[in-house]
Design a protein that fits this description.
This protein has 14 helices and three strands. By secondary structure, it is mainly alpha-helical.
């Protein structure tokens, strides 16, 4: 029997760890439809699992299929999005549902080229849906996975910005040939980064592959680039946009918007104009607005 390579040993150990320590999330383990997986992946962009799960459950109860969402309005989707943030994602999901109905009979396709043609679906989301929803063999590279790769195989604290050709080559080299194992590795490596190999406080004592980690072996050298910081929210146009949307979600008909307490008129106007430009808010005339 051929001897297991170091890469294979890491993959096997992480898969074993995930089988016992991975979180029991409703869109994992084949319990969700491909549509449910797509919705979860869009919701999880820049948003923690704890905030996403209750909204995802409500969303799937209301719109269990793409066809169901396609019969709703964009305003319905934005209202149901609640306070997840980045509400353009709700609009893109609504656009996506309509395209799925028009081109794919309401089903989520299982090939990368077809997934990449969907509104708002980029390289990561396409690979994730292909892997998690269809059990396909795809290299899934999100922030968590990139950090795991940088530390275990690169000996660095943080990965480079964006996705590099070297990272893609490494991901393909490590990815198991078996489709089932490849799909499991994709979610397991992501979970390792989310729970153990975190950005701020990595739990190296609990890491199942700490003995294989080049960063640990090198003495945890600091990265030559600063860790990406979370964009400030309080006092920003994003916060004002959220306040405007919150008011309009509660309105059953067009209402006047005359500013917000503590917000400069110029900033309020800028935030409202950006919402109009994004198509998330509609000018109903007479100084009134609606989702």
């Amino acid at each position: 029997m051929p001897r297991e390579s170091p890469d294979d040993a890491v993959v096997t150990t992480v898969l074993r760890w995930f089988a016992s320590e991975g979180r029991d999330l409703p869109w994992r383990g084949g319990r969700a439809t491909p549509w449910g997986v797509l919705v979860s992946e869009v919701m999880l962009q820049q948003t923690p699992v704890a905030r996403v799960e209750p909204v995802w459950r409500e969303w799937m109860e209301r719109w269990p299929t793409a066809a169901a969402l396609a019969t709703a309005t964009q305003a319905d989707a934005v209202r149901a999005w609640g306070r997840l943030g980045y509400p353009r994602r709700a609009a893109r999901l609504w656009d996506c549902a309509k395209v799925l109905v028009e081109r794919h009979g309401g089903e989520v396709p299982g090939s990368l080229p077809e997934l990449l043609e969907l509104p708002g679906v980029g390289d990561y989301t396409a690979a994730a849906v292909m892997s998690f929803a269809h059990g396909g063999r795809a290299a899934v590279l999100d922030t968590n996975v990139k950090r795991v790769f940088a530390r275990i195989w690169g000996g660095k604290q943080f990965p480079p910005m964006g996705v590099t050709a070297a990272e893609r080559a490494l991901a393909e080299r490590i990815l198991p040939d078996n489709h089932e194992d490849a799909a499991e590795w994709a979610v397991a490596s992501m979970e390792l980064g989310a729970l153990i190999c975190t950005a701020r406080s990595p739990r190296c004592d609990a890491c199942p592959v700490s003995e294989n980690c080049e960063w640990r072996a090198a003495g945890y050298p600091a990265s030559d680039r600063a860790r990406a910081t979370t964009q400030a929210w309080r006092g920003t146009d994003r916060q004002v946009r959220g306040r405007i949307l919150a008011v309009l979600r509660e309105a059953s008909e067009p209402i006047a918007l005359s500013g917000a307490e503590g917000v400069p008129d110029e900033q309020f106007g800028r935030a409202l104009a950006s919402l109009l430009a994004d198509g998330l808010v509609t000018d109903a005339g007479g100084g009134t607005y609606v989702l």
